[in-house]
Design a protein that fits this description.
Glutathione_S-Trfase; 12 helices; 4 strands; alpha+beta; Glutathione-S-Trfase_C_sf; Glutathione_S-Trfase_N; 2 domains; single chain; Glutathione S-transferase; Glutaredoxin
Amino acid sequence: MLKFYYNTGPNPMKVALFLEEAGLEYEPIPVDSRKGEQFTPEYLAINPNAKAPSLVDGDVTVFDSNAILLYLGEKTGKFMPAGDPKTRGQLLSWLMFVATGVGPYSGQSVHFKRMAPEKIPYAINRYDFEAERHYRILDDHLAKHRYMVGDTYTIVDMAVWGWVRMAHLVLDEGAIDRFPNLKRLMDEINARPAAARAIAVKDKAGHAFKTEMDAEARKYMFPSNERLAG
C-alpha cells in the first residue's frame, strides 16, 4: 500500500486530491511541522529536504508534490492527457510553472504577510505582486482553455488547486474574484467529492495537527530565524 506522508498544507493537499480522485488505497502518515517531525532521522531518510509531502511505494520513494503527481499520473495512467509530444510539453511546462512560480511566490507572500517577525514592505510588495502576476497568467490561460492542459482535467489542475484555493491568504480576501477564469476552475474542483475527501483526510485518519504558532512551532518551521538570534 502507498504510504503518504502529509500535513494540511497546500502541497500535500494536491497529492491527497490525486489519491482520492484515483481511488487509490493509501496510508496517510502525519508529519506535524509545528512539532518538528520533519526533522526526525526516520523522515529525513525519506525526504532529505524535511518537507511534506513524500510518498513511499514499495521500494520507490518520491518527494516534492509535483514530482509525486507526475509519478502517480504515469504509474496509474490517470489524469494524464494524451501522450503526444505537444501535449506532454504543455503538461510539463505548466506543472513546472506551478512548482517554480505559483507555489514559491504564494508561500513567500503568506510568510512575509503573516509569519515574518517584522513587516518588511519591500518583501511584502514583491511577493504579493509576483503571486498575483502568476495568478493572472493562469487566469489568462484559462480564458482560452477549460483546463490547464486543453479540455482534460489533469494533474496540473490539481497542482494549481493546491495553492490557488488559498488565494484569500496568499493575496487578500476576495482575491479570487479578480480572476474569473481561475475561479471557475477552483469552483469546479472544489465541487468534486474527491476534493472534500482530500481536505478531510486528517479527520478521517484521526490526526490532530498542532495549530498553535508558538515559540516551538516557529523554531521548527522557520529555523533560519535562529541566525537572527545569534
